[in-house]
Amino acid sequence: MEPLSLRYPDPAVEVLHPDFLKLRLFNASVERLATGLRWAEGPVWFGDGRYLLVSDIPNNRILRWDDCSGALSVFREPSNNANGHARDAQGRLVTCEHLTRRVTRTEHDGRLTVLADRFEGPTGERLNSPNDITLCRRDGAVWFTDPSFGIGGHWEGEPAEAERPHGVYRIDTATGRLDCPIDDLDGPNGLAFSPDESVLYVIESRAAPHRLIWAYDHAADGTLSNKRLHVNADGPGALDGMACDVAGNLWCGFGSNGAPGADPESLDGVRVYNPAGQPIGHIHLPERCANVCFGGAKGNRLFMAASHSVYALYVNTTGAVR
Fold first, then answer.
1. 124-141, pLDDT tens digit by residue?
2. Contact (CB, 8 A) for 299 and 322
3. What are the contacts of 136-141 at 24+ separation with CB within 8 A?
4. What's this model's pTM, rounded to 2 decimal places?
């Protein structure tokens, strides 16, 4: 592990609002755990094995970082250009695959079970390229976003025509039913539930002129209502993936969207928003951050998948999902 700064407090951990002071650990610094990836995405923590999985999408592999040894190894190759990951209540890996345009579950014996690849049955329209994923703990439903990023070229999948509008889907794992409760967002990307799962947050990564986070009330039967704007990036900040902590703060992968005049050095990293949607903190990284998750032995370590590298920071909170 390589600390990016020897100073405490770490100057990379910027306080934008006093609310962030209670989340920042004075004597914890940003550490680089691994590097050498082409586009790091989809981190997920396996506490029972003390390891982190992260996708390296263009290299068509899933990597494993071991907390005990610090070693980086290949977990799965090829990975079908896997992107986002989550774990279900039985501890199984659930994965979004760009190349095969599907969502799979890795069984305990290593077999892959296809959870979704087409809408409305085996002869229905193919999904675009499932991107990010989360699970609802109270009913086990799998939620995922399905933009067309993976079918736009050879970098993260294979070129293909979209058969479905961009959407956010829900898989009822008890029945296998696939629903599309959201189909009006341009480039739906990261998604996360509030700690009590009463609100679903979704990032619209192709919103113009700025990226947005939408909030939806999430009912006990899995239906959504009361769509409202929660966060406006209000500039060239590229909101991507996110994780929610136990207090309802959103920790969002952030960086430059490439707009003329944008300053990557000031934007790259993780932007933290309080439950009211106000930016309160920023973790500066030397690379754009795509996605994050909480993990570690006590759930208080933020793992950040950022372009070519994986970073970590101990914080004074824990993840709503561990």
1. 999 999 999 999 999 999
2. yes
3. 136/193, 136/197, 136/218, 136/222, 137/89, 137/197, 137/321, 138/197, 138/220, 139/172, 139/174, 139/222, 140/88, 140/89, 140/173, 140/174, 141/170, 141/171, 141/172, 141/173, 141/222
4. 0.98
| Contact of 216 with 194, CB cutoff 8 Å | no
DSSP structural state of residue 127 = P
Q: How far apart are CA 153 and CA 31, in angstroms?
A: 33
How deeply is 161 buried, as exposed, middle or buried, from its count of CB atoms within 10 A (0-12, 13-18, 19+)?
exposed
191, 199 contact by CB (below 8 A): no
Q: How far apart are the first and last CA of the chain?
A: 22
User: Nearest to residue 315, comparing CAs of 136, 231, 299, 305?
Assistant: 299
Q: Tell me: the pLDDT tens digits for 142-157?
A: 999 999 999 999 999 9
3-state secondary structure of 44: strand
Token pair of 195 as six digits: 């700690």
Q: How many CB atoms lie within 10 A of CB 47?
A: 15
212 CA to centre of own chain: 15
Is the four-CA dihedral 52, 34, 102, 201 of positive or negative sign? positive
To the nearest 5 percent, what fractions of the chain are helix, strand and coil?
A: 5, 45, 50
Specify the pairing of strand 142-146 against strand 133-135. antiparallel
